[in-house]
Amino acid sequence: MISYKLSPHQQQVKDVVHWFAENEMRPLSMEADRLGKVPDDWLNKINQLGIQLNTSSFGDDKNGREKESGKKVKRERQANRLAVIATEELGWGDPAIALTLPGPGLGGPPVQSSGTPEQKQRFLSIFSKDEPPRWGAYALTEPEAGSDVSGIRTTAQKTAGGYILNGQKIFITNGARASWVVVFATIDRSLGRAGHRAFVVEKGTPGFSCTRLAKKMGIRASETAELLLEDCFVPEDNLLGGESYYENRGSSPSGFRVAMKTFDNTRPIVAAMAIGIARAAFEYTRDLVQKEYPKHGRFYHLASEKLACAELEIEAARLLTWEAAWKADIGQPNAQEAAMCKAYSGKIALEVCAGCLELLGPAGLDGQIVEKLYRDAKIFDIFEGTNQVQHLITARHLYEPYGVRV
Ligand SMILES: Cc1cc2nc3c(=O)[nH]c(=O)nc-3n(C[C@H](O)[C@H](O)[C@H](O)COP(=O)(O)OP(=O)(O)OC[C@H]3O[C@@H](n4cnc5c(N)ncnc54)[C@H](O)[C@@H]3O)c2cc1C
User: In CATH, what class is 133-253?
Assistant: First the structure.
């Protein structure tokens, strides 16, 4: 059975990240939203301080050991749990700033899980406080392939020493500023998913460009790029996992599997950020109701009931998310739990923010944080797979014992 009590180490991570969220992110939050960007000097400062808070940076501690009562004991891997605990605090601070913190971002997990030792060293070692701030990115979505990623049309044509990539990617978080982007392409569309490959395309590669930054309703300070690949030569060394990674698996859908494996680890992290948003709106509203409204009045009772429901939803979402992260840590399949926590957290983030706005009335609008959180929450039931898609994944598991494919 999993214990829901945070260990001293987990509590310490939560406290440190919360301190950062409250003192470094919150003061910047409304201004970054208004500007539609996170100021460069702030990013430089954070990078120089060596603050490694990017959601994929909580490290792989599978060989970790810690001292307990004076003697060394083997510690269970807990990178995924630390990531969700910390990310909830970052989401509480500001989700758009959280997505812009320097680091490999969504590009990190596929390199970590499928890269060769040489690729991991080459692409992941560039994120250091002694270097300027750097980012990684993950480019799967295309104009014709969003939820149905099997439909990607970006092509990778084999040539001497590498591949020629052609295609378009849209909605890519940090895609313009990234030092490298994990780009998914197909070597042969007739092979379906088995034809998918993942490439690490480096910034400055001829034929690789950003054509537009999207204007958005929420998470405005987070950069969302459209990328174009025009006869873009990518060396063999940048094929994620190397040629043998795909050859050894015969006709199995390896590139597709890289994409899906990434989601099983990242969906709980996205869920945690949504929970942080819901908690931020809830806490702001709870404190204001306590301060401003006469106790025991009719409104106070109404508000208490609504706030109690919000707290219940937040706690339920958190427990689902922790379970998905825990399963990832102990190496158990977690696709279903990852889909459920993502769907539920995205849904409740929107509902809690909407409920808080209703309670606050005019006090919640016009440049106030809850109005911004409401706008920010929407994307959490879209990216990393929409809610409907998470329900499909869950339904697939439901029907599996009956041999029915959904
Ligand atoms: C701000 C932002 C940042 C993003 N960052 C990234 C990133 O870094 N990298 C990346 O690769 N992508 C990124 N995305 C893309 C995101 O993952 C996609 O938008 C998402 O997967 C949905 O795809 P779509 O927009 O094409 O919608 P569609 O797939 O066209 O879906 C439209 C609607 O149809 C529903 N639908 C689709 N198929 C089904 C079905 N089979 N059954 C029931 N309903 C269905 C969907 O749920 C949705 O409501 C980002 C998007 C945004 C907006």
Answer: mainly beta
